[in-house]
Amino acid sequence: MTLVVGFAPDGRGRGVLHAAAMFARSSGDDIVVAAVIPSPWPPSPARVDAEWRAEVERVAHEALDRARERLPDDIPARFLVAHARSAPAGLLEVAEQHEASIIVTGAMGSTNGRLLYTSPIPVAVAPRGFRTRPGARVERVTAAFAGADDDLVVAAAGVAARVGASLRIASFAVRARPPYTSGVGRSADDAMVADWVGYVESAARSKLDAVGHLASAPRALEAVVGHGETWEEALEDIDWEDGDVLVVGSSSAGPLARVFLGSRATKIVRDSPVPTVVVPRGVASELAEEAESA
In whole angstroms, what is the distance from residue 105 CA to residue 279 CA? Predict the structure, then answer.
């Protein structure tokens, strides 16, 4: 299989190369590093336009030269410049051409936002400034769990087992601080949060028990709940280590065969301190079936 890596034509975004190398080293997949530059529209024979396009092409190739130098020698990789109407469209075209299993991109922004609403395959987002140690592999897969994401957890378990990683289920109890508390208190909110945490912990234990009976189960299993008044605090409330990857599922309101982030998943991707893989519901179902039938 192939991982398509979106590398900015200006050469920024070293973190995406670290994340891609970690994924590829764990899965045994090769890498295609693509710098997407705009196609001229409408086509113009004007000299100024031709000179501009030549300059953009030169800069993109120079960026790929820097990516080639930064990518570890043990990772098989190809490098190409793609022409498309937009970066998301270009990455999707490259992924289709190379039958990629995943697209890896840099920190979440407008470009990644569009990709995270259109991709038919999982999209991995490397946080800004992400770095790994030499030879890093995926050591633990954490599945974001809200109590009913059955396919996603089983799919994450199958992937974790395949790459020799452990599995963790993580839920996040986010309770925003009210603008004022005088005369109102927070006892009702406390009780509601406690009830939800109890429910999700019970559901997580049940799901871990089911995952533990898979023919090929991850080497270790655990469930945790992160608490905080913001998503960033809740994510920081649980421990993260080198080799960690977070997996979230598409919103149930979105199309089955496309990545589609709900508000909860968007906040998780934005604030995650480790690479986050967003999986379309249809792909999660397929991976879960593979894990259960292995």
Answer: 14
Beta-bridge mates of residue 193: none
How many CB atoms are located within 10 Å of the residue 40 CB?
Answer: 13
By the 10 Å C-beta count (0-12 exposed, 13-18 middle, 19+ buried), 214 is classed as middle
pLDDT in tens, 102-121: 999 987 665 667 788 888 99
Going along the chain, which residue ranges are E strands? 2-6, 30-38, 77-84, 100-105, 123-125, 140-144, 166-174, 221-228, 244-249, 276-279
Q: Are 5 and 14 in contact (CB under 8 A)?
A: no
In Å, how far are 41, 63, 65 from 173, measured between CA atoms?
48, 41, 44
Is the alpha carbon torsion for 60, 65, 68, 70 positive or negative? Answer: negative
What's at 270, amino acid-wise? R
**Structure pTM?**
0.87
Beta strands in 53-111 (DSSP E): 77-84, 100-105
Q: Do residues 70 and 7 touch, judged by C-beta distance below 8 A?
A: no
